[in-house]
């Protein structure tokens, strides 16, 4: 895995938050050193990341220009000319693009001029939220002209097939988790205490962008009802996003300020500690106007800490959470179903422990970043 010479295009890269940025950083540092060149956006604090990252990282100003039509024209041009210059001066084995747009289209153009194969990642939600207009057509063009597509779940593969993508060019590689960072037995002292959560109280934990499709509003309703039934349960929601005010209003409407806590962004080092501190991880996601969870890396992060998950059935979560094996999958629109399964996990500690242990074992086998990197390296041999 150490001999790959790759040009990797990804607008999202550390220190930017999110699963795509983490995926790009974790996999390619395991596939090689300075012979892997990553072209990405210049963001605050990037210099600290680049100084210690083993790959060659090239930063560009990829901001959209509002008065231009299309406003992303300058971004595409910068991406293209930098990538072309690198491709003309290095003997890359392949060009990898972390999305169809903008990266995949640029990768295709550079590959046509330099005769290199193209690999494009498909994450799911971008395939179903861009309508059927020009943006969708450009994305479909890039995907249909890729030599290989990496789908992050069976659901994403199905979406690609419906778009007319050749099944023989699609490989399923799920995202991974750093099993040295997310693991059971971490010291979480002080976290529960900081919110006054007693040792006898059950804790449900969620983390993610605060958007409607994540289902945090449904989890708030379910926990509020469980408290009314007398179950000693608390709920902690970590993350930032557009739904912050909506969730705060919902918490107040249910008079739940004393047992439902929205704590905002958490430090990177504290996330695996919160996963250890909870009894159940919950993200009962749902599909909203085609916007759906492509996979759900947070579910395998919870599993790596030995915790069972409640997931929605929408999108690609079936690849991240195996129903009644590593967690429970519910209809995110159905509050009664969520309430029933959440209560079941909180009250049946033997079931919760069994699902959590099963999830932990699965992560060790299938979802370590080393395993993801190994599968990615095998693409070069196909």
What this model shows, in words?
It is built from 16 helices and 13 strands. The protein is an alpha/beta fold and about 375 residues long. The chain has two domains: about 5-175 and about 370-380, Rossmann fold (3-Layer(aba) Sandwich); about 190-365, Glycogen Phosphorylase B (Rossmann fold, 3-Layer(aba) Sandwich), CATH 3.40.50.2000. α9 (about 215-230) packs across α14 and α12 (about 295-305) crosses α15 (about 350-365).
Search tags:
382 residues, alpha/beta, Rossmann fold, 6-stranded parallel β-sheet, 42% helix
What is the topology?
Blueprint: E1 6-9, H1 19-31, E2 37-41, H2 46-52, E3 56-60, H3 73-89, E4 94-97, H4 100-114, E5 118-122, H5 125-128, H6 134-144, E6 148-151, H7 154-162, E7 170-172, H8 191-194, E8 202-207, H9 216-228, E9 233-238, H10 244-253, E10 260-264, H11 271-277, E11 280-283, H12 297-304, E12 309-312, H13 317-320, E13 327-330, H14 335-347, H15 349-366, H16 369-377
Parallel strand pairs: 1-2, 1-4, 2-3, 4-5, 5-6, 6-7, 8-9, 8-11, 9-10, 11-12, 12-13
Helix pairs in contact: 1-16, 3-4, 4-6, 9-10, 9-14, 12-15
Q: Rg, please? A: 21 Å
CATH class membership of the largest domain: Alpha Beta
> Spans of 5+ residues with little confidence (pLDDT < 50)?
none
In what range is the share of β-strand residues? 15-25%
Largest sheet: 7 strands, parallel
Write the element-wise H/E pattern from the N-terminal end onward: EHEHEHEHEHHEHEHEHEHEHEHEHEHHH
Total strand count, please?
13
Put simply, the count of helices is 16
User: What would the principal axes of the Cα set say about the shape?
Assistant: globular
Mean pLDDT: 94
